[in-house]
Structure formats: C-alpha cells, structure tokens
Amino acid sequence: xxxxxxxxxxxxxAQLTASEAAALIRSRxxxxxxxxRACLARIDAREAAVRAWLWLDPAHVIRRARELDKLPPKGPxxxxxxxxxxxxxxxxxxxxxNSPIYDGMQVGRDAACVGVVRGSGALILGKTDTVEFASGxxxxxxxxxxxxxxxxxxxxxxxxxxxxxFQVPLxxxxxxxxxxxxxxxxxxxxxxxxxxxxxxxxxxRMSSMTLDTVGWYGRSVDDLILVGTxxxxxxxxxxxxxxxxxxxxxxxxxxxxxxPAGELALATAAKRLADAGAIVEDLELPEPFNRLHDAxxxxxxxxxxxxxxxxxxxxxxxxxxxxxxxxxxARGTTPEKLLASYALAxxxxxxxxxxxxxxxxxxxxxxxxxxxxxxLHTTGNAIxxxxxxxxxxxxxxxxxxxxxxxxxxxxxxxxxxxxxARLLGIAKALAPVIDTDPKAxxxxxxx
Amino acid sequence: xxxxxxxxxxxxxAQLTASEAAALIRSRxxxxxxxxRACLARIDAREAAVRAWLWLDPAHVIRRARELDKLPPKGPxxxxxxxxxxxxxxxxxxxxxNSPIYDGMQVGRDAACVGVVRGSGALILGKTDTVEFASGxxxxxxxxxxxxxxxxxxxxxxxxxxxxxFQVPLxxxxxxxxxxxxxxxxxxxxxxxxxxxxxxxxxxRMSSMTLDTVGWYGRSVDDLILVGTxxxxxxxxxxxxxxxxxxxxxxxxxxxxxxPAGELALATAAKRLADAGAIVEDLELPEPFNRLHDAxxxxxxxxxxxxxxxxxxxxxxxxxxxxxxxxxxARGTTPEKLLASYALAxxxxxxxxxxxxxxxxxxxxxxxxxxxxxxLHTTGNAIxxxxxxxxxxxxxxxxxxxxxxxxxxxxxxxxxxxxxARLLGIAKALAPVIDTDPKAxxxxxxx
Lengths: 447, 447
Description:
homodimer, alpha/beta, Amidase signature (AS) enzymes, 11-stranded mixed beta sheet
C-alpha cells in the first residue's frame, strides 16, 4: 500500500493538508468532487457550532468540482477548495463585507487574488465571515472551533476558524493590524502574511492603503508555499540547517501585553529551536521601533477617513459608529502627525532589513498575547502584529502549543521586506521543530 | 438682468463651468435636465470627431437628471454631469478598462470616488476612454479637441478631451506617472491631482499601489475646489496676496526634455506672476531628486507584476505585451533595487515638504514638454509629472497659453504633502494671473 492509499484509507479527505490533497488529485487518487464533498460534509456537521461561512452554495461548488475533474490540471492548486474572506470580491458569490450596507451585493468580477488562485485551479468554496469591512462595526458570528465560547480572532474570523476546523484546507485572510496572523494563532493553523505589495489588493475592500495586506491560511508550511507559487513566490529550495541558524528572539515593544500562554508559546518555541541546535539570542529593536504601534494607529485611523467616506455620505444611518469616527477624524490626527508617522515607518523599514545577514537569519516573536479571549465581543489584541504590518515585512504564523484553557497558541517568524520565499524556506525547516504535535488539532477537533 | 440670467441667455449651458452651473441649479434658474441635455447635444455634435466616450446612455442619464430635479439638493455637486474614466467602477455602466479582457463587464457597485460624487449630487454622465488599464496596451481612440490629428494625452484621454471640449464640466482621471496633469495641459483645462491617499482608490483599477492617484478635471479652480469639498478637502479661504507670494520656479530634473512650447508656457507664467508682484525665484531641487524619475520607473514596473498577474494567468493570449513584460519583470528590477527606490522616495518626501515655509509658498513647474504630440500612437511624455506623483504631493494644472501649432499648454503648481486645501487656495489666486484668456478654449472650439 503506497503513501497515498494509506493516507486515503486512514483519513477523511477533509483532514488532508492542501499539499497532501494536491498530490493525490495530481495522481488521480482523489477527485476534486470527493475532496469538496468531504469539506461540505465537515461544514454540514460543524457550521451550526462554528458559523464560519457567510455564503455557501454546495450544488454550485460540486458542479465546479466536477468540471475541474474533467480538465487537465490548471495549475498548482487544481481542485483545492479555497475559502475567501467576505471583504474580497468573487465573481460567483456575493461580497457583503459583513455590512448591512452591502447586503446581497454581487459584483461578478474576481478580486485579483481570487483570480490568481482560481486561474491556478483552486475551487472557490464560499465566503467566510469577517469583522465588518475588516475594520470595525459588526463582529463575525464565527466561534473558535476549540471552544465556541471563545473568539476565533479577527477580522479574518471565518477563514481562520474554517481552516482550523478542517472545513477547508486553504483560505484568504487580510491583515491591516493583526487580522491574519492572530487568528492563525487562535485556530492552531499556519498563515502567511506576505510583504506589502507582493499580492495585489485589487477587489479587496480597502481600509488603509499603507497597511492592508492579503494573506492565506493552510495547515502546513508546504500549504503556504504551494499557494505562494501561484502568486509567483518561487519555492526557495536553498537548504536550511537548523543547527547554527541564527534566530532573533524578539519579545517586541509590546511585551507588556503578554499573557502566560503567549509567554509559554514563545519560550517553548525558543527552547525547542535551541535544543535543535539553533542559536537563539535576544533581539532588542532600536528605540524608534517603540513608537511604531502608535504610528500604526495614526495611519489606520487617518487613512480610514477616505476609505469610509462613501458610506458616510451614502449610508450614514447604518454605518457603524467607530467607522464614522474615522471619517470624522475623532482621533484628531493632524496632517503633521500623519506625515511624522509615515516618516517613522519609512525610517524603520531599512533599519529592520539591515538587521538581517550573517548575525541574524530570522526573527521569532509572539503571534498574540495568549489564547483566544472568551466571548465574541472582542477578536483579541493586535498589539503583537501591527508593527510587522506597518514594516511591510513578511511573517509566517506557526502553531506551537496549547494554553491552560486548552486553546492553541502560535508564534510568528519574520524576515526582511520581500524575503517571502526565503522566509517560507526557513519556516519549512523550523516548523517541525516548533510544531511538535501537528496532529493535535485533528485529535482535539475530530476525535 | 442679474448675472445668472445674463450668463444663461448668452451661453449654451454646456459652456458653463461646473461652479457657474452649480450656482444656477441651486437658484433653480437651470435644471439638471437642461444642463445634461446641453452636454448630450454637445457630445452628439462632437463625438464623431473627438471620440471621448466608451459608454454613454442618454435616455438613462436624462431620467436620472429628472430625478435629481425632483429632489432637494443632495450636496455641492447637485445635478452636475461628471465623466468617469473607464478604469473606475460605476454601478450603472460597464467598466472595461479599455481592455478586451473586460469587454462588457459591469460590476454594479460604485468605486469609492464615484460614490462620493454621486452621493454629493453629481450625475454620472458616462465612461471615458483610457489607455488600457491606464497602464499600457491599447491607447484610447480619443482625439485632441483642438486638432484631431493630435493626442489628447493619456491615460486619462477621454476625460481630458471631454472636459476640454465642453462635453462635460467635470471628470475623473487618474495618475500613476503623468496621466492626469499632462492631459489637463494638452486639453486646456484645470486638473487637481490630490495628495496620495486623500481620495480612496477602492474600485479603481490598480496598476501601482505606491503611485496610482485619483484626480479630477474642471474648467476653473473653483470647479476643482467644488469637487474637493465633496471629498472633504475644505475650501481654504485664507487670503492669498499675489504681491510678495514666493513662487519657486522649478524647471525640474527633466528640463532636458523641454520643448519650445513648454518653455514658453513656463516663462510666460513666471513673467505674468512676476509682473503681478510675486517673487519668482529659481528653485533647484537637491541631488537625490535627480534619481526620482528612475525610481518611479522601477516602482511602476515592479508593482505592475502583482497587478497584472491575474490577467497573465487567466487571459494570457489577449494581455498586451507591455503588461506581460511587467509580470515577467522584463526590466529585471531586483528586490534590492525596488527597496532602494522606495527608500529614495521616502527620503525625498520630507526633504521636499521642508522646502516650504517663509521662503517658499508654491512651486511652478512644467505640465508637459510642450504641446500635444501629433498622432494617436503616443499620449506624450510623463517625464515632468512622475516625480510629483512619486513624492505624493498635490499638484494643480492651470492652462497658460497656446503653442506654435495652436494647441494649449499649461503649467503645474505643486505644494507639500497634504496641503491640498492651501494649494487650491493659492491656485485660485494665481489662476487669473496665469490663465489670462480663460475664454480662449471657448472661442477656438465652439466658435
């Protein structure tokens, strides 16, 4: 019995990672229809509890899966179901931004990122719930698959929970503060937030021109690399030896916000890496980095002014108060303050990139303060993510361990701007060291 | 006979500036329907020669005008016809980007900028022709209204020509290199390219995240200010005295490309300002500014890679070769080179802003090398515009004179980042000095 058959007989196809499923589809041991039916069955069993999806049309996607089964492979993602955060346009489903202002809106044109994965063979499975406009207003109804009393994080709530809960192998999220990597941590999955501008934001609801970034979730680094190849982030096959690798342990200027589970995850990852021979050393960022979190807040608020002006004018009565506050510049950010915040980020970016070289290969840093908070009134704190978003650097979220409440906690790897391929290569080498129990999610959620 | 009546009896409503028409509509001396019918009649008479429009539905816009006539004023632009460059989404018309890939595409959702002006009462008149994706590939079919053998400039070809030819009082253009201010010069009209991020680019086809900017055309500074108020750029009523105003005459690092007509326009504007008492002094930009034009080329090419990847994957056979070249990085821009180009711009922006103060109120600089070139195979050279786009500073294009071939030539005013309101206030004071014959276009094109 070969690997593929053993995998298939042992597991429900919904449990496969995207890369495992892709290999089976390529060798015709698994059909696109079988895979999507397995995902739909998992959703059917779990949607009432997890509520990850805003739009799902099973008959439609089964038809599309059959169509894909008739075609030669279109690309690296052939037949892989892909969830799409509902601030991202899709030709065949509505895009509501989880806002009553856009209830039922269907634009009939794919966002650039959707066009890329669809053109690479992916099967767009449906739209996932999100914080309204990925920015404020309404929260998603989605619950943490590990404990429905807890948030899955946000704003990419539905995408994070759906991938974590084995409902779909891949999904798009976005990050303006910490909307992508934080849910990766809270749902026990892998996530890649690419460098700024590596992925087009065409057709993705804008909140902040300087910060909005499209990313994707998977259940292994191989999954992240696979999606990356569709975006022309080539797989970097340069060998990475963990022994001797220089890892900068960056508690970050946000360390005051750390909780026991976050501290545990960072210490655990650091110890596992050191035990495997990596040279893990504390990394203190220079002084100006301490002010990046405030600069981020200035920028996201000031740029929201233009972003939400159309709704302010055309749908004032149903626009959320926190989004109205952005248009009204309730924070009172002056042009001088905004320009100083831009200038600070502009100054820090090359400083950050220059840290890397013989003395530093990769940074290890928290993904979130700790476990997912209880309740759906919050999606957690983005304080450990916003600096990386503003620096425009690539980050990869990796699951690490579980906290005292039984919820997953991850850590983040970061590299210099535009080093996405290299960072994913390093992440591939480090993931087995950090994520020592990759079947933990399956055991806990499927069992 | 009051002003309004005298204006109306003397002129076809299509000849009115937007601000003149707005005043008459407010006082119920002109109906929205009368105004739009006058525009449609002008288009009817001229479209075969000028070919500014890609989509026009006269019956639809007349119905909407009647609807506006029944409503109380919705905002500062109530009833004003507005042309929209066809890379900008409109709910009620197709958006094709002048690309065969998007032939007939209609998304049913307004771009943010369209939502703002529609919500402020504007009547979206139709879609104007453009260079494909405002980036490469096919040119517009539009001709220069002053001489159909010449280009109207581009990529905002149809918007520039339609406003210049009195077919519509206002229109949106966009600028990534010189696509907005150059056509303003070639068509003898006013144009405002706002500071980066003052106007949301949601729903505007992306080419370069760092550079793309939405702007608008009108036939007076008052028109530009009027549209600005809809975008919450408040009218700056601080008095501006031309006498003693410090004007920096900036030939710019692109001066080697100047032609006689461009030199004439800049010298004429400078002399008129000096004669009116302004203190016009040569302004030499510091050394790093000489490299901004190359940095611009690196950025626009490198960022085009992500922007056109979806079409490269999904419509390879009909994607234009120059856009394929961007995806393939034919220019060979390395990540290091791209980051150095970003860093150069980041460094120059505060340097530029710091020039302003007691010693400098505004910069006067060319809008284009000279008159609009002959032929439709080119839209002219963006070399005098690209630096300002990359610096993210506001610019205002003002008509100045006519060249030897009888085509209009304008000049550009520039100010520091986010000084849009102040720059428009200065432009309002300087325009009567620079543009001494504001009826020249009417005499030449209508007569």
